[in-house]
Design a protein that fits this description.
The complex is a heterodimer of chains A (214) and B (484). Chain A is an all-alpha fold and 214 residues long. Chain A has one domain. Chain A contains eight helices and no strands. In chain A, α1 runs antiparallel to α4 and α6 runs antiparallel to α8. By secondary structure, chain B is an all-alpha fold. Chain B has a domain of 227 residues. Chain B starts with a helix and ends in a 7-residue tail after the last helix. Classes of the chains: A mainly alpha (214), B mainly alpha (484).
Chain lengths: 214, 484
């Protein structure tokens, strides 16, 4: 029964992937990212029905960091600088959406052929993880807006977390927590850089960052 | 207790944020000295780590740690002079993050757990990003942005690779700890498909941090925009830390009998980096970027040597040690050049032999060393790698390698000659740097660290202490290398 719940939650993740491909506004993208962070971090609750106290605490910490702190820091960064809100796509939205659909199908097909341990119970865990990874990469490459690129990085990290959920259940939480802290610190530093980019160049379009070449 | 080595700089780093500037500077040197003593103690008797599951003292770790320690100590002495000459607005942030950077790099060398290693390497990125942004200019902001984003994404790939390693453990029914030392003996049981996939992701991930082409694009920007002491650390030791991640994973691959697979990948990335460096070094107009490309070249050489195996691995480790010593001295000298001429462009420098004789000696000797001239160690390392390449039948790789070395030498030599002996071109905005307006007097603290670094490299060529030799042999033995 819980597995159905997991797969239902994962369809929400896949849906958020499509939203991310289609969003043209930065605030919408942040909302998608926050939603995704929350869904991704509560999945361990449904995979293992009887969790140890340490695991529960760790999962809640993940929820707070991925679902609240990371989106909040990005939100605050752009609030302070009152930024133009378009994500400046290199690849158009329709093409992006089409790519997203193809990606989900491809991820589902590929996962069937991969011999993945202990994830096989859930039909969608690996496809969703791969989709998130590639979506993150796509946003990093196909958007010129620096904020959209940071959001891409966060989605990438969400995907990796999802891929490792079955692993995280048996691993040491202190190690997992270290990874999480690294990601959080990385996002905070990126947020600071975003503010500075805005102040220095009066925009967050990365095509302005072109003084250094070769 | 092994952990003390990285906890000490972490604590002093935090202190440096709040202490007065003058105290922080002293603290930097003091921590460097203490750190050097602590790492030497690790050499004397190898203690058990308190958290033995996560940290361990390994031969390759000891080697890198000693290099880090020695370099940091000398660079910290240079830095006090550098800080006295510059009035940085945020000096405390600079010294604090230098120390945190040292702490995270030390943690990399002592990590044994696969994930802890990842955490430590990602932490080095975060601790060094503020160093690159020290000058607060648009260009340094761009360099920091590129550095943080490209390296974070790259290292995220290494995390995917590390996860794949856990998959291969699970499929192979391996229940040991997730540490390199525990996995290497049982590597044969790991699922080879996931292990190979994991290795590819880890090489791409840590290779980004190491500066292997085509993931190297952040490196010239970061190295040229950072203040020179930070560039020396970035180039001298940070790249080695990333290499350590690849080295340790390669150990598992070799032990699993997949050395052909991993070797081919490393050779391809190595050659790509060497060729990319040869292409770009020819048309460089800035001396710090030129040095950065030379770092990419040397990282390529190290990857190539590791991939070839046998004598090549020994050559790679020799190259790694000597590259650290020589390149950091070159970056420190480049700091002096920048202070003297107040310009990054090679065209606006000249006649350094006359203007800054002491820096000239260090810079020129460093150039000779880094281009692989005897009696410096890189010559021996490169020779070993070429010999190993011929022995194992990698004729094409050896050919490309030797050709690129010649091109790089030609490009490098032209630029260095221009800096040292050319008469500076006079432009409208920039008067020629003649004796009159040449204000930079070379203080001893900003010259002899370079001399010590170069001398160490020179001495290590003729005389390697037994303990050091044995450690190198132990380190390379684990990935099928040796002196045969």
């Amino acid at each position: 029964m819980t597995l159905y719940t997991v797969d239902t939650l994962l369809t929400l993740v896949l849906l958020s992937v499509l939203f991310a491909f289609g969003s043209s506004r930065v605030p919408a993208l942040i909302k998608v990212m926050a939603f995704q962070g929350i869904v991704v971090s509560i999945i361990p609750f449904f995979i293992t029905p009887h969790m140890a106290t340490g695991a529960v605490i760790f999962t809640i910490a993940t929820l707070v960091i991925r679902g609240v702190l990371i989106p909040l820091s990005i939100h605050l960064a752009i609030r302070k600088v009152a930024i133009q809100r378009d994500v400046a796509p290199i690849v158009g939205y329709h093409a992006s959406l089409f790519f997203g659909l193809g990606l989900i199908v491809a991820a589902a097909v590929i996962s069937r052929y991969l011999n993945i341990p202990s994830i096989s119970d859930s039909q969608l865990l690996f496809p969703a993880a791969i989709s998130l990874l590639v979506t993150g990469m796509f946003l990093l490459m196909a958007r010129r807006n620096a904020i959209a690129m940071v959001i891409g990085y966060i989605m990438l990290e969400n995907g990796i977390y999802l891929m490792g959920t079955t692993f995280s259940v048996r691993a040491r939480h202190i190690v997992e927590f270290g990874i999480l802290l690294d990601v959080l610190a990385g996002v905070m530093i990126m947020a600071v850089i975003l503010q500075n980019i805005k102040q220095t160049f009066d925009d967050v379009d990365t095509s302005l960052l072109r003084t250094l070449k070769e | 207790m092994v952990e003390m080595v990285f906890i000490t700089p972490f604590v002093t780093g935090l202190l440096a944020f709040v202490l007065p500037k003058a105290v922080s500077r002293q603290l930097l040197v003091l921590t460097g000295a203490v750190h050097l003593v602590l790492s030497l103690l690790l050499w004397k008797n190898t203690p058990q780590a308190f958290f033995a599951e996560y940290f361990a003292v390994t031969p390759e770790g000891l080697l890198s740690l000693l290099v880090i320690s020695l370099l940091f100590f000398l660079i910290s002495i240079y830095t006090t002079g550098y800080l006295a000459a510059h009035s940085l607005k945020s000096e405390n942030i600079f010294t604090g993050f230098m120390l945190l950077f040292l702490s995270t790099m030390t943690m990399v060398t002592l990590s044994d757990h696969i994930m802890v290693l990842w955490i430590a390497i990602e932490a080095t990125t975060l601790a060094s990003a503020p160093l690159i942004y020290t000058h607060r200019s648009g260009a340094s902001l761009e360099a920091t942005w590129k550095y943080v984003l490209i390296c974070s994404v790259g290292i995220a790939m290494a995390l995917v690779g590390s996860l794949f390693l856990t998959f291969s453990m699970e499929l192979g029914g391996v229940t040991s700890a997730m540490s390199f030392s525990a996995l290497t003996p049982v590597a044969g049981q790991l699922d080879p498909a996931w292990l190979k996939a994991g290795f590819i992701f880890i090489v791409v991930g840590y290779g980004t941090k190491m500066g292997l082409a085509p993931m190297h694009t952040w490196l010239p920007d970061a190295h040229s925009e950072a203040p020179s002491p930070a560039s020396a650390l970035l180039s001298g030791v940070l790249l080695n830390c990333a290499y350590l991640g690849i080295f340790k994973t390669n150990k598992i691959m070799v032990s699993a009998g997949l050395s052909d697979f991993s070797g081919t990948i490393l050779i391809v990335f190595g050659l790509l980096s060497i060729v990319a460096a040869a292409t770009y070094i020819l048309k460089q107009t800035e001396y710090k970027r030129m040095l950065a490309y030379s770092s990419i070249e040397n990282m390529g050489i190290i990857a190539l040597g590791t991939g070839i195996g046998g004598l090549g691995v020994y050559g790679a480790v020799i190259c790694m040690i000597h590259h650290s010593l020589i390149k950091s001295s070159l970056f420190l000298s480049s700091g002096n050049i920048l202070m003297g001429y107040k310009d990054r462009l090679i065209a606006n420098t000249g006649q350094m032999a006359k203007q800054m004789p002491k820096t000239f000696v260090a810079f020129f000797a460093g150039f000779a060393g880094i281009s692989g001239f005897p009696p410096f160690g890189i010559f021996i390392g490169e020779l070993f790698i070429i010999m190993a390449a011929f022995k194992t039948g990698h004729y094409l790789a050896a050919g490309i390698f030797i050709f690129s070395l010649c091109v790089i030498f030609a490009g490098f030599a032209r630029q260095v000659m221009a800096i040292c002996f050319d008469t500076p071109t006079e432009t409208d905005t920039q008067p020629a740097a003649d004796q009159k307006n040449f204000l930079f007097k070379e203080p001893p603290g900003m010259v002899w660290p370079q001399y010590v670094l170069l001398l160490t490299s020179l001495i290590l060529c003729f005389f390697i202490p037994d303990a050091l030799y044995q450690t190198i042999v132990d380190a390379v033995h684990a990935i099928g290398g040796g002196l045969q």
